[in-house]
């Protein structure tokens, strides 16, 4: 059945909702101001950062020289290759342990920061701002801090990954909890369940697959981050990467890069399979 409106009804409908159709002057001005501000920021970045396509074109020659120096990848000796492989597994261990500890410690914080669990505005505000503060500091900065606290080595790297991910996981968990369906929670409440029962049987079964998927993704992502923090003395293969670059051992640099790429590719493949298995879909 087709619903038709007469000319009079259509005109009355447009007149009744004219403000919503046309939009207010304030909204238009805000939109124009935001677009102008973003355009101005873009132009400011182009001029301040001295962006030049000619520098890139002229630098391609230097890039070709570096690539030629890196070929073929060569660790130098078998002992050196085994040392690099051991450092790679150390990097993977830093990423895995740091991510798992962050996921565990952030689990209760996610519930504290969720509005539908903790109704107190002050507690919610303090929890969210604390997580934002931790998340706002990059893992490399945390690595520099922990290196000065506990000394050089992989322990500092693990603490840096854990601290950096703690804020990110807390925010992601709280958002997943807030977007959870209320019907299971209401069902538990109607049966006389307590607040803990609501969380255990109403919320956790909904958010657990999302949380597990996020943790698996961060393990893969932190494998790359662990390489970077190793450059500042936080252990792992990044320490050897910085050393070989400093001594201009370019063939060893390319060998280390291939090791990192192979590890990241393997972890990404496994984590994607596990993520799709957890959320109930088949990986492509």
UniProtKB/TrEMBL annotation:
PROSITE patterns associated with the record: ABC_TM1
Predominant place of localization: membrane
Keyword Manganese in record: no
Keyword Transmembrane helix among record annotations: yes
Top-rank taxon, per record: Bacteria
Stored SUPFAM superfamilies: MetI-like (SSF161098)
Bilayer-crossing regions: 25-46, 53-72, 92-118, 139-162, 199-219, 226-242, 254-272
Residue intervals of the ABC transmembrane type-1 domain: 88-271
InterPro entries: MetI-like (IPR000515), MetI-like_sf (IPR035906), PhnE/PtxC (IPR005769)
Annotated GO MF terms: ABC-type phosphonate transporter activity
Compartments reported by the entry: Cell membrane
UniProt keyword list: Membrane, Transmembrane, Transmembrane helix, Transport
PANTHER family hit by this protein: PHOSPHONATES TRANSPORT SYSTEM PERMEASE PROTEIN
Record's protein name: Phosphonate transport system permease protein
Source species of the chain: Bosea psychrotolerans
């Amino acid at each position: 059945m087709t619903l038709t409106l007469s000319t009079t009804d259509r005109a009355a409908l447009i007149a009744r909702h004219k403000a919503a159709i046309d939009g207010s002057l304030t909204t238009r001005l805000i939109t124009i101001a935001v677009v102008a501000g973003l355009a101005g920021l873009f132009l400011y970045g182009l001029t301040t950062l001295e962006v030049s396509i000619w520098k890139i074109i002229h630098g391609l020659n230097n890039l070709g020289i570096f690539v030629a120096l890196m070929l073929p990848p060569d660790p130098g000796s078998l002992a050196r290759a085994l040392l690099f492989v051991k450092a790679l597994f150390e990097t993977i261990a830093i990423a895995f342990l740091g991510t798992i500890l962050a996921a565990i410690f952030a689990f209760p914080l996610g519930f504290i920061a969720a509005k539908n669990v903790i109704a107190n505005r002050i507690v919610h505000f303090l929890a969210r701002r604390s997580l934002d503060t931790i998340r706002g500091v990059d893992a490399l900065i945390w690595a520099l801090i922990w290196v000065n606290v506990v000394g050089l080595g992989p322990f500092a790297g693990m603490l840096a990954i854990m601290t950096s991910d703690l804020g990110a996981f807390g925010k992601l968990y709280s958002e997943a909890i807030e977007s959870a369906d209320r019907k299971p929670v209401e069902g538990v409440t109607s049966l006389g369940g307590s607040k803990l029962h609501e969380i255990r049987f109403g919320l956790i079964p909904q958010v657990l697959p999302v949380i597990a998927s996020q943790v698996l993704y961060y393990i893969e992502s932190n494998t790359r981050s662990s390489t970077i923090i190793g450059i500042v003395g936080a252990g792992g293969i990044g320490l050897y990467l910085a050393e070989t670059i400093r001594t201009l051992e370019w063939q060893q640099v390319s060998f280390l890069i291939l090791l990192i790429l192979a590890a990241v590719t393997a972890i990404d493949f496994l984590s994607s399979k596990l993520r799709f298995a957890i959320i109930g879909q088949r990986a492509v």
